[in-house]
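Troubleshooting log. The previous run stalled partway through. Resubmitting the same two chains, unchanged.
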Amino acid sequence: MLAKHKRRREVDSLFAEIDALDQSLADKLLSFTAQARAIAPDLIAAEDRMIARLTSTDIPSKAPKCGSRLPGFSLPDYSGELVDLQTLLAGGPVILNVNRGHWCPYDRLQLRDLARALPVLGLGPVHVVSVVPETTEFSLRLARENGLPFRVLSDRNLGYALTLGLPVWSGDDMIRAFCRYGIDLPLFQGDPGWMQPIPATFVVDQSGYVRARFIGSDIRERMPLEEIEAILSRTWLSTEQSLPSRVRH
Amino acid sequence: MEMHQIRYFLAVSRMLNFTRAAEGCNVTQPALTRAVKLLEAELGGDLFRRERGLTHLTELGRRLLPVLQRCYDTALEVKLSAESYAKSSGVALQIALADGIGLDPLTSYLGQVADVFPTIDINLHRGSIEDALGWLKKGDVEFAVATGMDDKWARIERWQLACEHYTLVVNSAHPLSRLGEVAISALAGERLLATPGNNLVEAIVCELGSDVTAYREVATVPDIVSLVAAHFGVGVLPLSTVLPANLARIKVMSADLSRDISLYAVAGRKRSKAAQLLVKTLRRERGSAAVPAISERGGMLLDLAQ
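Second attempt completed without errors. Output:
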């Protein structure tokens, strides 16, 4: 077996171990990083350096703010069907996750957690989507391998991510580390650019306005489930009418 | 990174000049420089080597140019298709072109409209400025590309597309060619050659009064170049005209020989989907939302350049 595949396998088995833990998402994300530091020190160190570069440039200021309208999209899901934001909003609020891809352990921990929590949260007709800069082949893998009950959309060339101010370039240091672990972004994305989005979550009300957001300039952090739950119950579910057409405060 | 940062980067990499790129993007040069610097900080390296007169892309800039171009182009597509225009068909756009005005300043915007409506039919109607105004009034065309139409009708609204600079062009053997710069009065007795409807020439003729021997309207720019080369008169030509070696440009003292080429439409009239998109594209590209204002000349002026 090639060395890079062996290294990737080790990270994958660590992932399975952490995913099975009975911990909050934030704790799992921290545990994963802490233990991965022992088995993939070069990968985690390159991430550290990339995070330091990105957190110094105030990326959150570029993304849509709470109270502003989320830019629209019309993107293909893994079956090739176009999904647009307007149609999703017609059915209720939307939780939009911008993710890095099927290879990213932090994304997988987050999305699996969200998938497990959805039935328990009793959110009513809330649409959850994940947008990844990968071809449909790999967006399908992300959905299948993690049992995601929601749609994963392909954002070619990070075009939609750019309307949100989220794309970043991996940088040579990170690219070298990716290569050592067989993380082949050009193959996954169908584009040789080595770009990736800053992971983010937007909770969007039915009129299309952002009610809560989380911008992961630290690419290992994600919006806590409790926060999603709190904002949804506060905004929509606190009244007898479960889904008023206008948002109440 | 953000769309405008990439747009500025692409403009500088095309023009290799921060000042001209800023003009092209309709922002101040410090604002453009700042945006590019922030982008460089985020990328962790310089995109340009800034040398006086020799600004050029670094290795990193060359590598990222096609990547960022693709990202930007796709983002434009996403934005436009999200407007759910994509499904309509049988779309047409009627545009009037005033004599002597080219379509060039509008073509990149039309290209973006065509990206959204691939089957769009663009029909061009050429005529005098009065013809164009008449077509606009009757609704035969939705837009006119012209110059100086603002004060002709109160319901006109306008988007500036380009500013065209003119100079006089004379044969190198002509006595005026040795002067480089002349007063308008020095043109007395000269025969002026210009494309039809050129209001700059009308201003010169007006100032000279009866002194001007002749003013000839010549249909095309190349014909004017040939006539000047044949010692037939003094040409009034855009600065962008390529001149043969035996012709020379001369400036006119204290006269502003430039004119705005604008896109005109009828204010308050319901627009077709393609027309709405063209207006939207213009607003987006020119960097700010249009604010209607009454110009000094009474017409409705939408100034996008501020």
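Takeaways: Residues 3-19 of chain A form the longest helix (17 residues). The longest strand of chain A covers residues 127-132.
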